[in-house]
Amino acid sequence: MSKWSKRTQQIHAGIRRSQYGEVAEAIYLTQGFVYDTAEQAEARFVELGEDEFIYARYGNPTVRMFEERIAALEGAEDAFATASGMAAVNGALTSVVKAGDHVVAARALFGSCLYILEDILARFGVEITLVDGTDLDQWRAALRPGTAAVFLESVSNPTLEVIDLKSVCDLAHAVGAIVIVDNVFATPVFSNAFALGADVVVYSATKHIDGQGRCLGGVVLGSRDYIRGKLEPYLKHTGGALSPFNAWVMLKGLETMDLRVRAQADSALKLATALEGHPKLSRVIYPGLKAHPQHDLAMAQTGSGGTVLSLEVTGGQAGAFRFLNALEIVTISNNLGDAKSIITHPATTTHQRLPQDQKDLLGIAPGLVRLSVGLEDADDLLTDITSALKMI
Description:
Mean pLDDT: 96
CATH superfamily of the largest domain: Type I PLP-dependent aspartate aminotransferase-like (Major domain)
Oligomer: single chain
Order of helices and strands: HHHEHEHEHEHEHEEHHEHEHEEHEH
Number of helices: 14
Shape: globular
């Protein structure tokens, strides 16, 4: 499929048809597989063939279709699907580090990612250094010969900082570190992470890939040696496998992802442009706006501002809550990338466990809200938002 565009690969890559020639991908809802002979079973446990399976925790035909399709879209050699986005982050990191190793990560991360780094990995003897991801001098100072891995969100959650991915990859590779990128906000539609030097890319498939609020899922992409040599042994023995049904939902989500994400990004830019300078907003944060500190970098890396914007409303937390509670179309929830527009208050939800000094450092102010733009009419969304802002 490599000669075709991403839009075509989203429909056709990775398809495995049974003897019935079905149009829609089949759901192989089974936990195990039958062998014709004892010798065949023995051979599979020694080495799996291209289209052979042992146990659903190791792999499944429906799951494999999803892995091959997303790998084709991302330009990766291989992929391993997981039960959730956080299972993907945990697997990507834990499979490559051990006690005594050093990991450098951007400070602006989703709360659960920080927990894996600062609580889990640090507890088992991994040294963690956090840096301002937008400051290349801090990356340069923190990296050292023997650093095992670098971890970052290409666009940070929730303040939408954009990291110079190529420069960070060059610095990391100079000391022999592997670069792991959480690319959720960039989306597979706008991603160029591997072309910019990333070694491993992680997605929460729960977000834009499903895109309709149905299922949890995640995926880790990289070289075949990494996926099958390091990641697969870790995940298949620790049990973070994606279910066949969820894989099927993700496959169907991929078919419409390009259309959905581009429409959402168009609406996000329209909203950000219209809301910029609103008297009830002290900040409108969106990489697609020229006022964004990394606007030029965002355009060079992805060509889009993405589907998410953040707003800092006046009046602190009380003002933010009055605004949220006055919305009629936009839904209060903590997911993103959905067909429905979703808004959340990071300081009290997704990042509530962070100490106040870290929230202040990251710019997660009491009045900050994160808006994931959906597929509703953009003018209706703007009317809803501006009406709710009057309540502040």
